[in-house]
Amino acid sequence: MPSEVGGPYPIEAIVAEIIATSESRCTSLRAVMEAYFKRNPHLLDAKGLARAFAAGVLRSYRVLDELARRVIGVEPMGLKPFERNLLRALIYEAKYRPVSSDRVLGLARRYGFRLGPKELALVKETAPQDMARGKGEVERLAFIYSLPEWVVEYLLRLLGRREAEELMKAFNRNPTVWLRVNTLKVGVRELVKKLEGRGLVVEVDEHLPFMLRVVKGSVSPSQVPEHAQGLFYTQDKASALAVYALGDGELVADLAAAPGGKASLANQLWGAEVVALDLRGKRVRVMVKLLRRLGAEEVYPVNADSTMPPLRVKFRKLILDPDCSSLGRLGHSPEIRLWIKPELVRTYAAEQRRLLRAASELLERGGELIYSTCTLTLEENEENILWAKDALGFEPVEVQLRVGLPGMLGLETAQRLYPHLHDTVGFFLAKLVKV
């Protein structure tokens, strides 16, 4: 009823439903949100708030769950997904958002949670640092930054304590938004001027002059007309760097192409014809729409399994950015922390090697392959490249431009980028030549 606290569609319930769906299906929060508001266009005005609210809940979910246990006496993991995430949303709101206590208490009563004035006061007063006392280092950091313990342990081994904690802090900040100017349709200066007229302040990147960093803005880039006109594409700088590092080529194959960002950039930068393969039909359909919007007419989408590509020609240039554990995207996609497991790293690494083997068969001698991931594990990155060198006859060569840190395990020709150092997603890229 409209007279109820929060009205018929309280933002807390909207956020809970979106997170619950993402958590239950182990799927992208962004995709779930797009589908939700497509089904509920009458709630579209709440989309921006829902996105920020959901990110806040996910970046603090372990603290919220512990408050539920200590203060309310409820074990969140014993609740159904919607109830669990609604409770998280209410506790997050009580602790971190400037809303009235009456609203939180009213919604708690409406949905049957035992959250009264006394409990609400304890939620507000209890500091995460106090709850973390007595925990070991890994458990404490996992709790404070709401990350899986195995991820924290992995990052500590990989980077050391100081660097790992700086990275964890970055995962809990709003990430930088990067825009790729579609120079097929507009010049950089012209687009900068147009965006400033829309209330978006952007800076041209020092390394890649077709990339713009969003400094501040009163509107989401996806909402301005220039987005619908295909004048720019939201793409991380690290992703664009991978394509730039590939270099000029007349014919390119992208073996895991959806949603089409790298394939369309190869066409934009080099005028290359690009065969863009992806296994999932739904993702290919999304790619088709993007290519149409960007005017990338020489990119040819193919719905196919790239481990067995239906291609008869050899290529001089290949792009391989396979599915991965996405640990570098824990800031952009905080929902990943709800389900990512160490065994998935091994599963992804094995699939990536199958794709590298297929790439080797497609590449002509002397041809070049860019391999990239948005994860930080050795298994999916350096270990795969060293395997490709030994098993497939690839030779790693220097990645230009040099923006990131050298790769690990002696693979200094590769690059690693980190959000706290390079203002990008966590990213790995290597360039390989077939000898």
Features:
435 residues, alpha/beta, N-utilizing Substance Protein B Homolog, Chain A, 4-stranded antiparallel β-sheet, 19 helices, globular
* CATH level-4 homologous superfamily of the largest domain: Vaccinia Virus protein VP39
Quaternary structure annotation: single chain
pLDDT under 50 segments (min length 5)? none
Task: Count helical runs.
Answer: 19
What is the CATH fold-level name of the largest domain?
Rossmann fold
Strand tally = 13
Integer-rounded radius of gyration: 23 Å
What class would the helix/strand composition place it in? alpha/beta
Q: How many independent structural domains?
A: 3
CATH class of the largest domain: Alpha Beta
Kindly state the percentage of residues in helix: 40-55%
Which architecture of the largest domain would the CATH scheme give at its second level? 3-Layer(aba) Sandwich
**Mean pLDDT metric:** 96
First and last CA, distance: 70 Å
The main β sheet shows up as:
9 strands, mixed
- The proportion of strand residues reads 15-25%
Shape annotation: globular
Explain what this protein looks like in three dimensions.
This protein folds into 3 domains: 11-131, N-utilizing Substance Protein B Homolog, Chain A (Orthogonal Bundle), CATH 1.10.940; 178-222, no CATH class; 237-434, Vaccinia Virus protein VP39 (Rossmann fold, 3-Layer(aba) Sandwich). The strands form 2 sheets. Strands 5, 6, 7, 8, 9, 10, 11, 12 and 13 form a 9-stranded mixed sheet that branches. It has a 4-stranded antiparallel sheet with strand order 2-3-1-4. It has 19 helices and 13 strands. Helix 14 packs across helix 15 (261-270). Strand 2 (200-204) and strand 3 (211-217) form a beta hairpin. With 435 residues, the chain is an alpha/beta fold. The longest helix has 21 residues, at 342-362. The mean pLDDT is 96. The protein has helices at residues 11-25, 29-39, 47-58, 61-72, 81-96, 101-110, 117-125, 128-131, 137-145, 149-159, 161-171, 188-197, 225-228, 237-246, 261-270, 281-294, 342-362, 382-392, 419-422, and strands at 178-181, 200-204, 211-217, 232-234, 251-254, 273-278, 299-303, 315-320, 363-373, 394-397, 405-406, 415-417, 427-434. It is globular.
